[in-house]
Amino acid sequence: MDHSDRIADLVESLTRAEKLALVHGAPDPDGTATGYLPGVDRVGVPELKLADGPLGVRTPGQAATAFPASIALAATFDDELARRQGAAIGREANARGQDVLLGPGLNLIRVPHCGRNFEYFSEDPVLTGAFAGAVVEGVQSEDVVATPKHFVANNQETKRTRVSADVSERALRECYLPGFRAAVDAGAGAMMTAYNRVNGTHVSDHHRLLTEILKDEWEFEGFVMSDWFGTETTVGAANAGLDLEMPGITSEEMMESFDMPDLELSDIDFGNADALPTPETAGTRMFAEPLDEAIDAGEVPEARLDDMVARILGQMERFGVLDDERNEGEIDTPEHRKIAEAVATRGTVLLENDGVLPLDDHADVAVVGPAANVAMLGGGGSSEMTAFDETPTVDGIRERSRGTVTYAQGVPEIEIPSFFDDIFGDDEEDGDGEPGDVAIDDAVEAARTADVAVVVVQDATTEAEDRDDLRLPGDQDDLVEAVAAANDRTVVVVQSSGPVELPWRDDVAAVVESWYPGQADGDAVASVLYGDADAGGRLPVTFAPESAYPATEPHQYPGVDDEVRYDEGVFVGYRHFDDTDAEPTYPFGHGLSYAEFDYRDVEMVDDETVRVTVENTSARDGREVVQAYVRPPRVADVDRPLREFAGHTAVEIPAGESVTVDVTLDDLAFRRYDESDGWTVDPGAYGVEVGRSSRDVRVETGVSR
Ligand code: BGC
Predict the structure, then answer these.
(1) pLDDT tens digits, residue range 67-78?
(2) Under DSSP, is residue 443 helix (H, G, I), strand (E, B) or coil?
(3) What structural domains and CATH numbers belong to the chain?
């Protein structure tokens, strides 16, 4: 790789010890960064600070804007909004003195159980790529380095530091890699490796993935860092292409930097023993003395160390860190609050509605449920946020309603496991009640006398642990059933990391999915419930009963003998449901609107653009997400998905008006990866479907390739 003369000269001027200090982390003297490089004072290389991501900037003990979860962002199907959210997070990182953001998370949602699905975008690679690219561009537009993670096939938390994802080259290329490729094409300055192995090799030791694919084939010029305590070898990792060991300090040093010297990493309850590598299961300081010795022994070329340093310094130069041209940034501004609210609102998906929504301003509303009196900021783990200000769902409804609003929790609080309660102690009271204080009967009574009941339910997920099943935790299903029996105008707002089972869905009047909406929870939910905004969100994941998803055999998930076989191949998400003709509960792309749309006059305007006229036939202004899918021709001996999502365009359409909409079709939907010939476009006729979801195709055309 060619580096600028300045970087090449700088690297040449450094001693071996100085270079080594730039390729593994150190304790942050301020205790605010998640990862820290001290720089080299002698030659004027400043420090570099890295902070988590991806739902906002997390610096211990400090607040920041708590943006909606990544899956909610993807549910907006609005890349421009994603760019704006990325830029806002970038400005907040600057305000907190952080140079690198540890995000976006963009692993494909392979199994619905994964505890981090809320940190990821979608089960579809094209949609994931669109949001990966937009967020990277947004963050970096503020001169903050983005770090797409976790490269690659980190699709579950169970045994995440041990499992090998055994996945075909075709599935890697068609499904798991494209999001990362899109992030690289968008100019990502850094990349974080996954904890897991891929086809037997730990990702940080994976020469083919890190050097041959990422750096050589994709021409990635940034630096590759390990996940925290995720560097397992010195020689293997250095020669594979890892550039930076993180955090590069021992767990004791990390606790000391948090000003908690008495706490050991092993004291923290991460839910399962394999969740975080400890110095016993994975090394730390692999790129300190051991790398020095490996270079002396001729096991790692000195040129490799120079390249690591040049890559890191190269990004520091590119983003102005080297010249101390840092933006001051800003935090918790009215604009950032507005973006957080806009994403939460637009990402809210109307799953069912028998006409009860939008609510009448004057309706008396009984708000019920354990998730209603807290703002759902996210799941547990490294993405946990502390907001300056947050609006619980019930407060947003109270603020908006012109009727009487009552609140009854109904069932005990559902606790989200938190890393940071373990580290810093939980001194905050979450929720209103202890188990003894709440009763389903109180909620039923409140619902019976109200015009409408709004039940707000949640799941509870965290990094380092998968969900055991897709049921709502605690007695929330019973609560919904009981309230629905008491009031036939019952609306359920689901706040979840991804798909959950909704066994009562036929017994309620409406179901709304609001994910983890972040600090603007109540405002966003209220504006959708009352119809101030159209229900604009669409599902970036399929909702189905647990047994209907792919990868239901133990060897596929959670794995046997630390091996997870991805033998469903490319049939992930809706591709599986199409292939097996299984009925999803709600298909990929689904989301109702308060308006109604008619599609007509579909045509290809060129090889990659489909054009359609969409008319809003209702009396309300609406927002439509026009989705395009490609149906590849059948080729002998090749199993291809029935349809592949190819692109989307979201449009606001005033009542009664028509608009012409162009959707660009992603090349990925046409190509397939052939294990011997590489990327292949089979010649033939490709169907092009345009509609409201993967199962609600409205018009069809075609194109030849
Ligand atoms: C997570 C990463 C995170 C890192 C630093 C790890 O446990 O997997 O996503 O960026 O910690 O907090």
Answers:
(1) 999 999 999 999
(2) helix
(3) 5-318 (3.20.20.300), 344-541 (3.40.50.1700), 563-704 (2.60.40.10)
